[in-house]
Amino acid sequence: xxxxxxxxxxxxxxxxxxxxxxxxxxxxxxxxxxxxxxxxxxxxxxxxxxxxxxxxxxxxxxxxxxxxxxxxxxxxxxxxxxxxxxxxxxxxxxxxxxxxxxxxxxxxxxxxxxxxxxxxxxxxxxxxxxxxxxxxxxxxxxxxxxxxxxxxxxxxxxxxxxxxxxxxxxxxxxxxxxxxxxxxxxxxxxxxxxxxxxxxxxxxxxxxxxxxxxxxxxxxxxxxxxxxxxxxxxxxxxxxxxxxxxxxxxxxxxxxxxxxxxxxxxxxxxxxxxxxxxxxxxxxxxxxxxxxxxxxxxxxxxxxxxxxxxxxxxxxxxxxxxxxxxxxxxxxxxxxxxxxxxxxxxxxxxxxxxxxxxxxxxxxxxxxxxxxxxxxxxxxxxxxxxxxxxxxxxxxxxxxxxxxxxxxxxxxxxxxxxxxxxxxxxxxxxxxxxxxxxxxxxxxxxxxxxxxxxxxxxxxxxx
Length: 463
What we know:
The chain has 17 helices and 2 strands. It has helices spanning 2-27, 29-48, 62-73, 83-86, 89-120, 123-133, 141-171, 174-189, 208-223, 225-234, 243-267, 279-296, 308-320, 333-348, 362-390, 395-405, 420-446; strands spanning 353-355, 358-360. A two-stranded antiparallel ribbon has the order 1-2. Helix 1 (2-27) packs across helix 2, helix 14 (333-348) crosses helix 15 and helix 15 runs antiparallel to helix 17 (420-446). The radius of gyration is 22 Å and the shape is globular.
């Protein structure tokens, strides 16, 4: 009798938790995401303010701890202090745990919201959502979360398996190489961009195996769980992929190749960045920069030494971001694809956008436009505030704002120069850029409803 009761209690507890999670997400997806991430940031801020979290043994200030905690949980990578020198080993462990929980939390919360959103809509929309995720278990939140965690940890383990022996050889110390390898594996897949070398990745930047492993980790993390899930199920059978996976991989590849080519062209003779490198290393660094400008945040050069034109290209790539339901930020590559397809349809005189023999609903186009408008507004307001606080022209405040909004982590050096008021603004932007876009898109989708009437058409003059 007792042996029968114990499994029932455990199963009942698990069922209650899943039911609570589904209930809060279904009732208010936006509120659920905001509360979960706000609570996580508060916890890690408190931990980073403990004396043993810093290398000096003195408690970190509230603006400093809050900013780093927000950056870690939102997997951004911006920091006003040098992570390697300012934080103790305990502090670095707190940061990497925040990154891991933040990355998994982003995927998990986004998956829960996607499941709750699909259940809130009609049968037809549910079928479309299930086809988009290529799973019959969309309503099973527990199964969805389990798959997210397994895939994420498996990729991180594979990255660590390559990085650990390489960094042990580079560092000349087993424990240091082990810690650095695990840290960079988690930071790379979660697109966090945190580094624990005093001179950044320049300390290992000459090693192509380390650079390519980090770059692959960032690339996979930026694709998003729905795409990774499709790749896991269907491998490279392109015809079996859903439209989301096809558009994500296509636009991601296009931006990656175009970004690398433009970066190489702009910086080829800039001795402050890649100008003094051998040709193969210039090409490698250009590709590395292109991949990381869309969310990874890792860099082997100093961003504020790049040409102004290169920084402008970086702004565009950071704003674009990575795949939906991923550890990447920005407005997402599928948003860009939908808007571009709508533009092509309008230019050709077609009433509907079409891609890969699938029609893009007009409601999806409206959500895409809304997401872009929301992101541009947040970046604009933040840039104006930072310009006022710092007294600088637009270039560096804009760069820092887009990096924060896109949860990229690249910096022009402005973050370390800002007073607490500037740090609070960027922290709010990181939080909004990470949680706001997810919850905003979910809220827009949930609010879609049919009406029984239509007003007469009115056609304002455009252009």
